[in-house]
Amino acid sequence: MNQIGEVEPAEAIVSAPFFLRGEVLFGSEIIQKSRDLGVTFATPKIPLDKAVAPRTEVPPLLNVPLAEIIDFLVETGQRLSASDNTYMQECVERMCTTHVLPRAVVENSVRHAAGYLDNRVLTAEVEQSFPDPRALDTWVPKQDFMGRKSFVRAFAPRLIHVMPGNSPGVAVKSIAQGAMVKAVNLFKMPSADPFTMVAILRTMADIDPNHPIVRSMSAVYWRGGDDAVERVLYRPQYFDKIVAWGGGDAINNVIKYLGPGFQLVSFDPKTSVSMVGEEALADYDTMDRVADLCSADVMTLNQEACVASRYQFVEGPQEQVDRFCERLHFHIARRAEASGDVRPLEMDMREQVESMLLMDDEYGVWGRADGKGLVIRSEEPVDFHPINKTANVVRVDSLDDAVRWINVATQTVGFYPFDRMADYRDRLAAGGAQRIVHLGEAGPSTIGNPHDAMYPLHRFVHWMAHEDGTVSTLGLP
Fold first, then answer.
1. Whole-angstrom distance, CA of residue 23 vs CA of residue 46
2. What is d(CA 459, CA 362) in angstroms, rounded to the nearest whole number?
3. Segment 332-347, tens digit of pLDDT
4. Domains of the chain from N-terminus onward
5. CB 331 within 8 A of CB 295
6. Would the pTM of this model clear 0.90, i.e. be above it?
């Protein structure tokens, strides 16, 4: 018997325990399969009664000051980075069996994820999201121009989080954000990573097993689309909102459960691009430097992240654009080799690339479909999703021509030269894009900025108004 009632499994297997409001639940009753690699792992059955907090219960974090919540999160970040944190060590070992990313990338992602749990970062997130952050801690008095008085509070919501499997950093961020809005949280872990969330929560429980944050968090796994689970949990009787990440299938599956009183906060599947002006082709040194910046955006999290560039619109004649493609391939291949990721392309994608190799007049191809880096040059975006270290360079006469390919699924636009960004940002926003950055800086973002065209914390909370007053000047009773 370990802390907080843990019971170790009878035998060592690749297992994914659950975390239910402070209790760690081991078990191997259900054999699951990861989506990307088809690797099996074991989980317990979900005790649905423990996964749902009754609405008659006041959220545990409601009256805990935000400053104390942030202090606890900061301490958690320090413990996550500690060399003797066995939970995180086990998490990395297990995650390497189910995730497409190589060990070095997984280890680096986990190591850097704790950096979000910094007092300055968390405070900035809150201050940028709420005009008056006091609303998280208390009923804030207001009075309108007619003299009517009221109180407003960002009340603690009840959230189901459908998590993505591409980045451990999202797990850290989701726990922190759920805590800062004082939510009651149920995390549906992804099959690619059913380990990180519980490892973080167990670290928290070691700090204080009875802390209100610990008692506000549960993390379980079920196969997406399992109606036996979802028709029980996805109800407004139990939760206010679903915070859903993932691909189109995952989002569409969630949508069918929506109804009055049960809302969706969606981090839809997104595609990011690069826009490279003719200035990049001025000379060899400039071309090589810009191609390297472009490769950094392509290879963000080995091109598994939404911010990773898929399409690169390059302005200029074909001969010069082809020289840029050669340098881009060189730098992508260099980064791919350093990452240790040796996955070949999926069969369907390989077949399409091989067909392009036979069409010399229409396409240019640098590299092979072996997962070691590939660049395809075309006059229009290819009709498949570039992934696994694949770049599709689209030659354009002018970056004005690239704007027509921007839509509401375009998340990040990496841009060069930097002094032309202001000329395009309005048109990119009108097309639906959500972010424009310097080429090479798709990964890091300004702390507290909107994400996917919204301030998530502001969307998470349940806004409640207490009207308290009459307008005597109008003669109302």
1. 13
2. 46
3. 999 999 888 878 888 8
4. 3-268+454-463 (3.40.605.10), 271-438 (3.40.309.10)
5. yes
6. no
